[in-house]
Design goal:
Elements (H helix, E strand, L loop, with lengths): L1 H36 L5 H9 L3 H4 L4 H30 L4 E2 H4 L15 H18 L11 H10 L2 H17 L3 H4 L8 E2 L1
Antiparallel strand pairs: 1-2
Helix pairs in contact: 1-2, 4-6, 4-8, 6-7, 6-8
């Protein structure tokens, strides 16, 4: 029994410390992402803005009771994001990235409108709606349940179609000449593949 305790305590400490480290990195990355878009924002206020709202969810049910809802929210946010990112990299930019442009601020090829790409946000928002329609029934939130979406989900799931449709939608808007996408297309000089 003593041998098992000697192993369990360090294992528990490793799990606790690795969780703290991962959460600290996620918090830092989130805050720095916002700080990049809003350079004059106060760092400590951004930390509070990012760190405090999730505390509410600690006290709402258990992880087990909310697991499907958490997966629904994560899937609804992440799948359209990857659709836009993959559509931008593979379809719009054809795997060419302006390395110098990545580090330019205002006026750079990736600056779009005040540091935000409104076309990407619009496609992402549409992708969220699509994912919730297809996969919302998996959550415990009753108003996210769509019978027709559940029928399609049985054959296609929600993530793959959302990624594909968001990628194609982003590409199609780029081909239609939407300025915020096409103005950031790299020229051959200074690009990498």
């Amino acid at each position: 029994m003593g041998h098992q305790i000697r192993i369990r305590v360090p294992a528990l400490l490793i799990i606790i410390l690795s969780t703290l480290i991962n959460n600290a990195m996620l918090l830092y990355a989130s805050v720095m992402g916002i700080k990049t878009a809003f350079p004059n924002a106060n760092y400590h206020r951004l930390v509070a803005l990012v760190a405090l709202p999730p505390i509410f969810f600690i006290y709402v049910g258990t992880l087990q009771s909310n697991f499907n809802t958490i997966l629904t929210v994560v899937g609804a946010l992440i799948a359209p994001y990857w659709g836009v990112a993959l559509g931008d990299y593979f379809l719009v930019r054809r795997q060419r990235v302006d390395l110098v442009g990545l580090y330019q601020g205002e006026g750079g090829p990736y600056w779009f409108k005040r540091g935000f790409n409104p076309v990407a946000f619009a496609v992402w928002a549409g992708g969220i709606v699509m994912w919730v329609f297809l996969g919302g029934w998996t959550s415990s939130v009753s108003w996210l349940h769509f019978g027709s979406g559940e029928k399609v989900f049985t054959y296609l799931t929600a993530t793959a179609p959302t990624i594909i449709i968001c990628a194609v939608a982003y590409w199609a808007l780029g081909m239609m000449g939407i300025t915020t996408i096409t103005k950031s297309l790299p020229v051959n000089e200074g690009t990498t593949k």
